[in-house]
From TrEMBL:
GO terms for cellular component: Atg1/ULK1 kinase complex; phagophore assembly site. GO terms for molecular function: protein kinase binding. This is Autophagy-related protein 101. GO terms for biological process: autophagosome assembly. Belongs to the ATG101 family. Keywords: Autophagy. The gene is ATG101. It comes from Mucuna pruriens (Velvet bean).
């Protein structure tokens, strides 16, 4: 199956902007891959003069919010790193079961890569997240912040237009509508950066891809000069 990939323009964010920006982008993509059984809901951003549309489904909102919170936790632990969030659409296919795999597999037909660079040096906000305000002393600092916010708003609009352009131009790879009762969009998953441990060293951006196959975190431990592999499924 042909899998189309869209690399969205990189956005440079401050920590308190992550939630709103990612909600806007992820909901926009999911809405444009909705199956028609949706109650569109307009959402106005608080930080920018931008409006986007949600599917109006609580389960979708919860799934997106959960992944955003996980991503924010990752950013806090790994500051000053560029990162990606991947939204993947897939088909579920039955296959012959074997001793090492299930009889269901996912065939990915579209992937969206959201590229962000979180600037930690301006992180001076309260725990209330995107409702908080950042205060910088000096008129020059305020002008710089306003200019940066205006530039980010323009870049976010570019990303939204990029999404719409991709959806309108790339259609041949979209599979038939699945026969899933109550589904409001094609099956999809959201992947955020993760770390696994190999021989005592962090391996960056290990995939957090949900699948029916058990995933392994491989830890290499040296005990009395012997190497032991410990497999942990989750």
């Amino acid at each position: 199956m042909n899998c189309e990939v869209c690399q969205l323009k990189e956005l440079e964010l401050e920590h308190f902007e992550i939630r709103e920006v990612l909600r806007c982008i992820l909901h926009t993509i999911v809405f444009h891959r909705a199956l028609g059984l949706v109650r569109p809901k307009d959402v106005d951003l608080e930080l920018f003069d931008v409006t986007y549309v949600q599917c109006g489904e609580a389960e979708v909102e919860s799934k997106i919010d959960d992944k955003i919170e996980q991503f924010i936790c990752w950013v806090e632990k790994h500051p000053n790193k560029k990162s990606q969030i991947c939204l993947s659409f897939y088909e579920v296919k039955n296959k012959q079961a074997s001793w090492f795999s299930n009889k269901v597999e996912r065939l990915y037909w579209e992937q969206w890569y959201i590229n962000v660079n979180v600037a930690q040096h301006l992180k001076a906000h309260s725990s209330k997240g995107h409702h908080s305000k950042v205060v910088d002393p000096g008129e020059g600092a305020l002008e710089d912040r306003n200019a940066r916010s205006t530039a980010l708003e323009a870049s976010l609009r570019e990303v939204l237009f990029q999404i719409i352009k991709f959806v309108n131009e790339k259609k041949d790879h979209v599979p038939p509508i699945p026969n899933l009762e109550g589904a409001i969009s094609f099956p999809h998953e959201i992947t955020i950066p993760r770390f696994c441990v190999w021989d005592g060293h962090d391996q960056e951006n290990a995939p957090d891809r949900a699948s029916n196959n058990a995933k392994l975190i491989v830890r290499v431990c040296r005990e009395a000069g012997n190497m032991t592999l410990k497999n942990a499924t989750y």
